Amino acid sequence: MMEEAFKHVVIPDRLLTRLGPAINSGTALLLYGPAGNGKTTIAEIIGKIFKAVIYIPHCFVAEGQIVKVYDQTVHEPVPSLGDTGVVRGLRRERFDKRWVACSRPLIITGGELSIEMLDLKFNSLAKFYEAPLHIKALNGTFLIDDFGRQRASPSEILNRWIVPLNSRIDFLSFHTSKAIELPFDELVIFSTNLHPNDLMDPAFQRRIAYKLETVEPPVDLFRKVFEGMAASKGMTLTDEVFNQVMRIIEENEAQLAYFQPKFVIEQVMASCKFEDMEPQFTPENVEDALLNLFVKAPESKMFGVARD
User: Fold this and answer.
1) How far is Cα 67 from Cα 165, in angstroms, rounded to an integer?
2) Along the 308 residues of the chain, how does pLDDT read in single tens digits?
3) How far is Cα 11 from Cα 37, in angstroms, rounded to an integer?
4) Looking at domain 2-213, which of 1.10.3720.10, 3.40.50.10420, 3.50.50.60, 3.40.50.300 is its CATH number?
5) What are phi and psi of 83, to 5 degrees?
6) Residue 31: how many CB atoms within 10 A of its CB?
7) Range list for CATH 3.40.50.300 in the chain
8) CB distance 22 to 182 below 8 Å
9) Longest CA span, the chain
10) What does the H/E/C string look like for the chain?
């Protein structure tokens, strides 16, 4: 299943081998490393590996309070028998309307995440509660992207989840001060370009069983990514173009990154569109693309504007 999921992605074999046990365990996973090396892409692919159908309740009642769970913006219903004519083994949806047959959810949150979003939210007009994102992600994957750059600090998020990550049980409180116990059964992925030591102390690191670093690609993988992306856009990566890219990257004392080929190709295609020409690499548009990728030091003046 992993090989099928990652077949369109260039990824080191060693990283794929280490990902397997982490995904299969269902415990928390930390992906860290320099920006632009595929952490978010890997996490999103992980969230789509499992194809099982799950049943999500529209809502549930606890302590006399209604809690809404099903959310059309994050949950993806599977086609019913009547829609496709294919028997999927789903019977409950035909007679029990309290549940919605869905694919396993993949919920992604980034810098907008606040500590309040991890608790029940009361709708004072409709008189019901909205389940937090991690409850909507039950039986699926919850990705916290760019961990460390949220509205809530890393310590606040980890303090909130220090018990759930271990016990697989979470406690949520109503505005009446009554608390309920809910499962915390999901794959939680933290993705960050910060070093783990800058985000959490050793006690928290122990609770995240799997920590995988994504590093800059070796030259052969970098070229493989470049060639594949260029071919998908109808362009050919020649030795001259590749050597030009490598030379400018070295001149800027920059590290290779998996995102760079995509960036250069998109810039080249935009330049060709402006010039009303077929997509192709030229020394000029490749150089322009890399000038947009790397910001020169203040003392470097590539262009100037003459003033009277």
Assistant:
1) 22
2) 888 888 888 888 888 888 989 888 888 899 998 888 888 889 999 988 888 889 999 999 998 899 999 999 999 998 865 555 454 555 555 667 899 999 999 999 888 888 888 899 998 888 899 999 999 999 999 999 988 888 888 888 888 888 888 889 999 999 888 889 999 999 999 999 888 888 888 878 888 889 998 888 899 999 999 999 999 999 999 999 999 999 999 999 888 999 999 999 999 999 999 999 999 999 999 999 999 988 766 655 555 544 44
3) 10
4) 3.40.50.300
5) -75, -35
6) 27
7) 2-213
8) no
9) 80
10) CHHHHCCCCCCCHHHHHHHHHHHHHCCCEEEECCCCCCHHHHHHHHHCCCCCEEEEECEEEECCEEEECCCCCCCCECCCHHHHCCCCCCCHHHCCCCEEEEECCEEEECCCCCHHHHCCEEECCCCEEECCHHHHCCCCEEEECCCCCCCCCHHHHHHHHHHHHHHCEEEEECCCCCEEEEECCCEEEEEECCCHHHHCCHHHHHHCCEEEECCCCCHHHHHHHHHHHHHHCCCCCCHHHHHHHHHHHHHCCCCCCCCHHHHHHHHHHHHHHHCCCCCCCCHHHHHHHHHHHCCCCCCCCCCCCCCC
What is the C-alpha separation between 201 and 20, in angstroms, rounded? 26
| Token pair 């470097």 in the structure block, residue | 300
Locate 163 and state its tokens.
């018990």
CB atoms within 10 A of CB 22: 20
